[in-house]
Design a protein that fits this description.
By secondary structure, this protein is an all-alpha fold. Helix content is 82%, strand content 0%.
Length: 315
């Protein structure tokens, strides 16, 4: 058995080797047949690749026409860039010109405003000067009026004094006639100086009824109502009329130390006593009859007179 197996194995081995050799021979023959075809294909592929490369190289190399076109395109792009740069420069220049024009306009407006303010200040100064002059003129007129009022008051005092003398003479003469019966010649001689004194009194007073009046309760600070009305007969402004009547009825210290209402303006101030009701009432009636003003307007003018007197005392 072993011998048979060894012989069979050897035969089998020989068979396998023969088959392997046959296969290799077949593969070599097939490869020999296939190589020329592949070689042809490879050569054709290489040819195509080389032609494509040549075409690409030719395409990459510019022709004179294409070069001209490229040069023209480049020149146009450069010109467009230059145009854009010039437009930007023009815009910047225009913007600067506008800014400079606006600055110039602003400076001109400021100069005009300064000139207008200077002119307004000059006008205000001139107005202040004119107002000061008017106030000075009014003060001068007021002082003149006060002087004339003082002269008038002095004349009234002289009239009163002469009236008292006349009344005393009349009383003495009536008593003398009752006690003594004198002759008619002496009585006529005594009446002549009386007529002369009456005529002088009428000339000084310019009011004929004053000779018949006696000094009673109808007088207001030694002035009658007609005299007080005469003080302001030639005055057209309410303020000056209030000032003149107040100074005729009350002294300056009394005007400053008294008030219209008699009440304090606020809690910080002290209440001042009220003006004399009788004198102040006549004062208000005369002003209302002449100017037709209200009590409120009159009180405002009284306050302004008090302020004027306070400034006067401080100065």
């Amino acid at each position: 058995m072993e011998e048979w197996l060894d012989s069979n194995l050897n035969s089998l081995m020989v068979d396998h080797t023969d088959q392997f050799i046959i296969r290799e021979s077949h593969t070599e023959a097939s490869q020999a047949e296939a190589t020329p075809k592949k070689q042809k294909k490879r050569e054709s592929v290489n040819v195509t690749t080389e032609s494509e490369k040549k075409k690409k190289e030719e395409a990459s190399q510019p022709t004179p026409k294409k070069q001209k076109k490229k040069d023209i395109v480049n020149e146009t792009t450069e010109l467009e860039k230059k145009k854009k740069d010039l437009e930007k420069e023009e815009r910047d220049a225009n913007a600067l010109a506008k800014r400079n024009a606006q600055k110039v306009m602003a400076e001109e407006i400021l100069l005009k405003r300064l000139k207008s303010t200077e002119s307004n200040n000059n006008r205000d100064q001139e107005m202040q000067k004119t107002k000061e002059k008017e106030c000075q003129d009014k003060d001068k007129e007021y002082h003149k009026e006060c002087v004339s009022a003082k002269q008038f008051s002095e004349l009234n005092e002289e009239v009163r004094r002469l009236r008292k003398k006349l009344d005393w003479h009349i009383n003495s003469e009536t008593c003398g006639t009752s006690l003594k019966k004198e002759s008619s010649s002496v009585h006529v001689a005594q009446k002549k100086p009386k007529m002369e004194t009456i005529s002088t009194l009428s000339v000084l007073n310019n009011t004929p009824d004053m000779c018949c009046q006696s000094e009673d309760s109808s007088l207001y600070n030694s002035y009658s109502r007609s005299q007080l009305e005469d003080f302001i007969s030639h005055i057209d402004s309410l303020y000056t009329a209030v000032k003149t009547l107040l100074l005729q009825l009350f002294p300056e210290s009394y005007i400053l130390s008294h008030s219209v209402s008699g009440k304090a303006a606020n809690t910080k101030t002290v209440a001042k006593p009220q003006f004399d009701s009788r004198l102040y009432g006549v004062f208000v009636k005369i002003l209302k009859e002449k100017f037709g003003s209200t009590t409120k307007e009159i009180t405002e003018k009284v306050h302004s007179v008090q302020k004027y007197l306070q400034k006067k005392t401080v100065l």
